[in-house]
Design goal:
Blueprint: H1 3-14, H2 22-31, E1 33-37, E2 42-44, E3 52-58, E4 61-66, E5 71-77, E6 81-83, E7 96-99, E8 103-109, H3 110-119, H4 122-147, H5 150-165, E9 166-169, E10 172-175, H6 181-188, H7 192-204, E11 208-211, E12 214-217, H8 220-238
Antiparallel strand pairs: 1-8, 2-7, 3-6, 3-8, 4-5, 4-7, 9-10, 10-12, 11-12
């Protein structure tokens, strides 16, 4: 099987849950340029001109907001994924995109992409559903960061990572993204010391296991119950 056939098979089966029409997949393969990136390479930075969309074929991409002295990780992408759809408005990139490992992407010129959309308006509904899902995810993240205490924030993030990037093992669900306490802190807007302390608590009560940067959720339902308990305590303190 050729490389193009491999990419087509991935996109047809998995991109937007396999809901994209064949015409869209063919357009991406004919107009996209396959690019390779090494770990720690940036595809773009915040406020760069948003001329290119990407389809993640292999590897993982970290999207983050970068300040002068801090970084807030907003999402980790696994393949296949089209991003960032938000630049369809023609404005600059709102965040930075960093390759976490060896990565392959198809790069698509925004204007060429828009011409295809104009000729195939049915694709817009599929893009809209994905944007709506991202917006709901963002609302949930804002809620957790604004209303939850540190334990709730971290627990909710671990639960989400296990759901999106989890791999079942004999011990539980392995979060397949290697994450340090510093990276988790950036995802949850917490101090690294707080994250390390809470991870230690979760290890002690046997909800998670950590080996180097590999985190395994030993029992997802136990984690869910722990989160609900934290949420109930948080609501009680607000009331």
């Amino acid at each position: 099987m050729s490389k193009e056939q491999q990419i087509r098979a991935i996109l047809e089966r998995k991109l937007f849950s396999g809901s994209m029409p064949t015409e869209f997949i063919t357009f991406c393969l004919e107009n996209g340029r396959l690019r390779h990136y090494a770990p720690k390479q940036y595809l773009y930075f915040s406020d760069d001109e948003g001329n290119t969309l990407y389809i993640l074929i292999s590897g993982r991409i970290r999207l983050s907001l970068m300040g002068e002295f801090s970084e807030k990780i907003i999402r980790v992408l696994s393949p296949p994924a089209l991003f960032p759809e938000i630049v369809l408005d023609g404005k600059p990139y709102p965040h930075a995109a960093l390759c976490m490992e060896d990565t392959e992407v198809l790069s698509l010129d925004r204007q060429t992409f828009m011409r295809f959309i104009d000729s195939n308006p049915s694709v817009l509904w599929i893009l809209y559903r994905e944007l709506a899902l991202d917006l709901r995810r963002s609302y949930r993240q804002i809620r957790n960061l604004s209303l939850g205490d540190a334990r709730l924030r971290l627990g909710a993030k671990l639960f989400a990572l296990a759901h999106v990037h989890g791999k079942p093992t004999v011990h539980g669900v392995l979060i397949t993204i290697p994450l340090s306490a510093t990276e988790l802190a950036g995802m949850c807007s917490l101090a690294r010391e707080s994250v390390s302390r809470i991870l230690g608590e979760l290890k002690k009560i046997k909800i998670i296991k950590i080996e180097r940067k590999a985190i395994t959720v030993l029992d997802v339902e136990n984690l869910r119950s722990w989160i609900h308990e934290r949420a109930a305590n948080s609501r009680a303190s607000i009331d």
